[in-house]
Amino acid sequence: MQALVIHAAGDLRIEAIEHVDMALGQVRVRVRNGGICGSDLHYYQHGGFGVVRVKQPMVLGHEVSGVVSAVADDVQGLQVGDRIAINPSHPCGSCRFCQLGLQNHCLEMRYLGSAMRMPHVQGAFRQEIVVNAAQGFKLEAHVSDAEGAMAEPLAVALHAVNRAGPLLGKRVLITGCGPIGAMMVIAARRAGAAEIVITDLIDQPLRKALKIGADQALNVASNSDALSPFAKDKGYFDVLLEASGSQQAQRAAFDVLRPRAVLVLAGLSSGEATLPLNTVVGKEFDVRGTFRFHEEFGVAVELLNKRLVDIKSLVSATLPFRDAGKAFALAADRSQAMKVILDFE
Asked: What is the CA radius of gyration of the chain?
């Protein structure tokens, strides 16, 4: 079969790879759609992110959906022909963090398309993949393959919102309007936020954010004072969901957060950022990180299956995987694209 294999920065190849044998508890899946994620772009553009570097050829991709083509004899709940979203997260289940219910911090995590381990965990941008049956979540007929592929970033947004605590009636600021920031709008609204304001440096994604539920979408590049009205009386917002990874965006948000606000940091920066800790102390901020997800993946699929969220409008384009170069270039152009989907059919 063919797969998209990253060798180094800028070196993405379509290569033939071997089929993988199926073991007990596993299913074979014919991949249909795959979403290009920010981490895929980092591997393609820079050869990695932070200390994580591509050190050997690796199949990219972790946002995928497909059709079950074979099941092991002991598998229950899935059958040939089922359309599924694939959870790329495979924690060991037995390390101390898994036992504490912190599976996203598993010491032996095998996450599809990740160079964090050696050897790297091969990804899902391939025509066929074998996964544990527990990683497959059935999709209703009305859920498209593209939506199924986006269950993973939706799960990331849901986990970030969970980290913020109860949002019912809260005023929420979201910084960064990429796919994760946009899905945070959807997740925060579903969680009961009374007001959602999102910021970015580009108009195109901000227009999309207004269509999916944001109350205000502010371009802080064209209007550097856009947030100033919210700074009065020690700040306005109860919660910050930070999805940009920009130290400048984080710092600007501090001025418009009220005392004892909750800050959830999801965006990864290229280097180590510094925070104004005197402000953290003086306004008694509660700063929290958010990393991947666990049970939220199943919640994401359930929300899609029950039509409780609508993410279809976030798909900017669907291109054949053989046009990977064009697809990755489009995905990197935030003025043109929100989420680019690869078609493996």
From this structure: 20
| pLDDT of the residue at 271 | 59
Task: Residue 236: name the closest of 226, 248, 245, 244 by CA.
Answer: 226
In angstroms, the CA 176 to CA 249 distance is 8
Could you list the beta-strand ranges (E) of 17-149: 26-35, 48-49, 52-53, 58-59, 63-71, 83-86, 89-90, 110-111, 128-132, 136-138
96: exposed, middle or buried (Cβ count in 10 Å: 0-12, 13-18, 19+):
exposed
Segment 211-236, tens digit of pLDDT: 999 999 999 999 999 999 999 999 99
Please name which of 209, 288, 211 lies closest in space to residue 242, comparing C-alpha atoms: 288
Q: What is the pTM of this model?
A: 0.95
For each of the domains in the chain, give its residue range(s) and CATH number, in order of start.
2-150+311-343 (3.90.180.10), 157-289 (3.40.50.720)
